[in-house]
Amino acid sequence: MSQVPHCYRHPGVETGVRCTRCERPICTDCMVDASVGFQCPECVRGGSGTGHSRTANQPRTVAGGRITGGDPHLVTHLLIGANLVVFVLAQVLPRFVAETTLIGLAYDPRLGREVGVADGEWYRLLSSMFLHQEVWHIAGNMLLLWFLGVALEEQLGRVRFLVLYLLSGLAGGALTLLLAAQNQSSLGASGAVYGLLGATVVLVRRLNQDLRPVLALVALNLVITFFWRDIAWQAHIGGLVAGVVISYAMVNGPRERRALVQWGACGAVLALSLLTVVLRVSALS
């Protein structure tokens, strides 16, 4: 039978709650409400002590990332900004969408040539993740990016959050390339955003919070995925699965080998995505 942990400040008090930053067990008298979960008094004060003790007690996210000063949602803001800039470019440059959308292989009359990843344009896997044409499309994706990204960036840290976003988008693009028709184009941040959706489920479960609102949001988005016309469901599912895998490794890995588990999972998702693209390109070439 596993032993119930005791509060690190009150050794005689059993508790099932841990600080979301340093992961030390804390009782109800020591809990400090945070945007997600609870924190211990030391992490709220930003650490204490000097020298080695300050380094040892430096506040970290639940995934082990360093908590830096400044804007805690910097990456979320930058990603939203990048999507908006690309959206404007798509509106004012006639050839921009044709040059950057995700497509396997097809003849594009607008450009007068064959285009696609199978034609050597691998950059489309990245560029299409930031590309939107319709106002409703970018509005929906950016709303979800803001809503989900704020809490995830706080809990994972900037670097891990950015890696989660990009790899989820790449996985969604790879699955789309594999399963969609070779001349079917795809664009949008939906794969990356669905990765954040899957990661939110994992994080909320890890923090022992109420899963029902998040599961309802997932269910709603899956209904939209499969019943709304002209949606690349492959990108949604690929991103969602990648987000779950990556985030599970990030917040549930053993502390002693946490970095190895985290980056190993990221490497595996990256390798599988690239292998999928290589196999599809080989079939189309």
Automatic annotation (TrEMBL):
Transmembrane stretches, start-end:
74-93, 135-152, 159-181, 187-204, 211-228, 234-251, 263-283
Say if the entry is tagged with keyword RNA-binding: no
Which SUPFAM superfamilies does the UniProt record give?
Rhomboid-like (SSF144091)
What membrane topology does the UniProt entry give? Multi-pass membrane protein
Pfam families the UniProt entry points to: Rhomboid
* Entry GO terms, CC: membrane
Q: Which GO terms describe its biological process?
A: proteolysis
Say if the entry is tagged with keyword Protease. yes
Domain Peptidase S54 rhomboid residue range list? 120-251
The protein's location, in the record's own words, is: Membrane
Q: Which InterPro entries does the UniProt record give? A: Peptidase_S54_rhomboid_dom (IPR022764), Rhomboid-like_sf (IPR035952), Rhomboid_protease_S54 (IPR050925)
Give one GO molecular function term: serine-type endopeptidase activity
Write the record's keywords in alphabetical order, separated by commas: Hydrolase, Membrane, Protease, Transmembrane, Transmembrane helix
What family classification does the UniProt entry report for this protein? Answer: Belongs to the peptidase S54 family.
Q: How is this protein named in the record?
A: Rhomboid family intramembrane serine protease
Q: Organism source for this protein?
A: Streptomyces solincola
